[in-house]
Amino acid sequence: MFRWYIEESRAINVFAANKLRKRSDFMAPSGSRRSSSCPNVQLEEAVEYVQNVKDTLRLMNDEGAFQKFLKIMDGFKKGQLDITDVIVRVKSIFSHYPHLILGFRRFLPESTQFLISVAAAPAA
């Protein structure tokens, strides 16, 4: 249980760092009322999303997918993966969890959001 907490904290840190790292790459969806000058709102969204990922995967007894998610986020943070690689890999590991795929979409640059659509996520 303690290990899971540490991994969750790491995921939040990695995910939030990627989310907040570069404003021009990570924007709120168009039409959103989120302020780009308010990082706390975006951090809260990242924390909520990672918690949703954790809860879903724990409920489905699929903690291996969470480890893969951590590796993907870590690879992106280190510059080993570009955003397209991240999208392809996240879609693959969350293929049975369309709500996680669509939730991930809100953290993507607008120019890549078309890569994740409702049609791309299979029905559960």
From TrEMBL:
* GO MF annotation: an example: transcription corepressor activity
Q: Which organism is it from?
A: Marchantia polymorpha subsp. ruderalis
The main place the protein resides is nucleus
Q: Record's Pfam families? A: PAH (PF02671)
Protein name per its UniProtKB record: Histone deacetylase interacting domain-containing protein
Recorded GO cellular component terms are: chromatin; histone deacetylase complex
The root-end lineage is: Eukaryota, Viridiplantae, Streptophyta, Embryophyta, Marchantiophyta
Q: What Gene3D superfamilies has UniProt attached to this entry? A: Paired amphipathic helix
Q: Which UniProt keywords apply?
A: Nucleus, Repressor
Keyword Nucleus in annotation: yes
Q: List the GO biological process terms.
A: negative regulation of transcription by RNA polymerase II
Task: Give its localization.
Answer: Nucleus
